[in-house]
Design brief:
Number of helices: 3
Radius of gyration: 35 Å
Order of helices and strands: HEEEHEHE
Structural class: alpha/beta
Helix content: 25-40%
Largest sheet: 5 strands, mixed
Mean pLDDT: 81
Shape: elongated
Low-confidence stretches: none
Strand content: 15-25%
């Protein structure tokens, strides 16, 4: 006995539109109530001291590299045969101290020349390097 003649059975379906509406309302609520503050902005009062600042003069060894590959260490011309020879010249200028190596390279100097100075500083055991630049006028 078939009591449902002529009626097509409808499949149940889930309507997602109300779910999307609820999620959108929750998202708007979260965005409106969330604070985006940085905790690194602590207000602290630093201690004061009445002593004068001591000017700590660090030893600097200036290595200059010209565009034609001429090296100087503190104004004294050095013939470059290898990074070891340049490292010896740097050690001689440092007098057993830990200097800051200041690299003055011409803008037209090859990259390899600057890398040679960095390698020589590493071989000499000097870990503090800086590059000298100038500001445009």
């Amino acid at each position: 006995m078939n009591f449902r003649r002529g009626r097509v059975r409808e499949e149940p379906e889930i309507n997602f539109i109300p779910l999307i509406d609820v999620m959108l309302v929750i998202l708007i609520f979260l965005m409106a109530t969330t604070t985006y503050s940085k905790f690194a902005e602590l207000k602290i009062a630093l201690p004061t001291a009445t002593a004068e600042k001591q000017e700590a003069k660090t030893l600097e060894v200036e290595v200059t590299v010209a565009h034609n590959g001429v090296y100087t260490v503190n104004g004294k011309a050095v013939s470059y045969q290898s990074p070891e020879s340049l490292a010896e010249a740097m050690r001689a200028e440092a007098n057993g101290q830990e200097p800051v190596i200041v690299i003055n390279a011409d803008s037209a100097t090859s990259h390899q020349s600057v890398v040679n100075v960095m390698e020589a500083a590493r071989l000499a055991g000097f870990g503090k390097l800086t590059f000298a630049t100038q500001t445009p006028n």
